[in-house]
From TrEMBL:
<dbReference type="InterPro" id="IPR041255">
    <property type="entry name" value="LpxI_N"/>
</dbReference>
<dbReference type="InterPro" id="IPR043167">
    <property type="entry name" value="LpxI_C_sf"/>
</dbReference>
<dbReference type="InterPro" id="IPR053174">
    <property type="entry name" value="LpxI"/>
</dbReference>
<feature type="domain" description="LpxI N-terminal">
    <location>
        <begin position="7"/>
        <end position="135"/>
    </location>
</feature>
<dbReference type="Pfam" id="PF06230">
    <property type="entry name" value="LpxI_C"/>
</dbReference>
<dbReference type="InterPro" id="IPR010415">
    <property type="entry name" value="LpxI_C"/>
</dbReference>
<protein>
    <recommendedName>
        <fullName>UDP-2,3-diacylglucosamine pyrophosphatase</fullName>
    </recommendedName>
</protein>
<feature type="domain" description="LpxI C-terminal">
    <location>
        <begin position="141"/>
        <end position="269"/>
    </location>
</feature>
<dbReference type="Pfam" id="PF17930">
    <property type="entry name" value="LpxI_N"/>
</dbReference>
Length: 283
């Protein structure tokens, strides 16, 4: 691969695609950003080749990337599966949808897998955001705050089991558990919205825990669970006492700022090994 070969970013919402674009551009490698309409904001990529496409024009998106000379593509940011009404595909988009098939409407992870398959068939190489930004996936460690006590550890174990059940049917990657009770699960609304409704659901006593984990069998090339400063802010506002996320499989955005915010709020920030919190295993 030549040093001047551009990286293509198919950008959803959130800070991750912006961080990837900025870091790659700062390294001297050209960047082209295809923003998914209704998810990302083209204004977040000033000075970079950028175009916006709705799902129904996905074939035009691929053609645009090819015209830019892109071979490697990163899928980054929050992306929810489209509704039938929002697609309005053109003729080329209809052919592309036929190749994707029912996967486009069976879940968030399934559509991303289908998109990656189409990209590969069209000669693109899909790379993970973590391959572009080193250090995004923390290993197992307590990154901030007090070590979780036995009750919090039990909530993490319960949360991991719930996340795995949700992920098995391609629903979400997170939940909130307090004293063994599941206060909320993440679906299409995303983590921030899930946390926003938790404050009114909290019980008396020790606060709950946000747990984030990979879906069973999930590709690490797209849509990894993500934690950042806003997540910590939302957890604090919801009265939680900690955030626990799967080690080596969760993207930690703005690491220093996220850790600092957790410390200031007195929340624990735990990157955990799933084997340590899987029922029936010994540690």
């Amino acid at each position: 691969m030549g040093a001047a070969e551009p990286l293509g970013i198919v950008a959803g919402g959130g800070a991750l695609p912006v961080r990837v674009a900025q870091a790659v551009a700062a390294s001297g490698r050209p960047v082209c950003v295809a923003v998914l309409e209704g998810h990302g904001d083209p204004a977040a990529y000033p000075g970079l080749p950028c175009a916006s496409f709705r799902w129904g024009l996905a074939a035009q998106l691929l053609a645009w990337l090819k015209r830019q000379g892109v071979r490697q593509v990163v899928l980054a940011g929050t992306v929810a599966r489209p509704s039938l009404l929002s697609l309005r595909p053109d003729a080329a988009g209809m052919k592309l949808l036929a190749r994707i098939g029912r996967a486009a409407f069976s879940g968030d992870d399934s559509i991303l897998r289908a998109v990656m398959k189409v990209l590969a068939e069209d000669g693109f190489e899909v790379v993970g955001a973590q391959q572009v930004l080193a250090g995004l996936l923390p290993p197992a460690a307590l990154l901030a705050g007090p070590a979780p006590d036995d009750l919090a550890r039990a909530d993490i174990q319960r949360g991991l089991a719930v996340c795995r059940a949700l992920g098995a049917v391609d629903v979400g990657q997170g939940c909130v558990v307090q004293q063994g009770l599941v206060l909320a699960v993440e679906a299409i609304e995303g983590t921030d919205a899930m946390l926003a409704r938790c404050a009114a659901l909290a019980r008396e006593g020790p606060g709950g825990v946000l747990v984030k984990a990979l879906k069973p069998g999930q590709s690490v090339l797209a849509d990894l669970p993500t934690i950042g400063p806003r997540t910590v802010q939302g957890a604090q506002a919801a009265g939680l006492r900690g955030l626990a996320f799967e080690a080596n499989g969760t993207i930690l955005l703005e690491r220093e700022a996220t850790i600092a915010r957790a410390e200031a709020a007195g929340l624990f920030l735990l990157s955990f090994d799933p084997a340590e919190f899987t029922e029936g295993t010994t540690t």
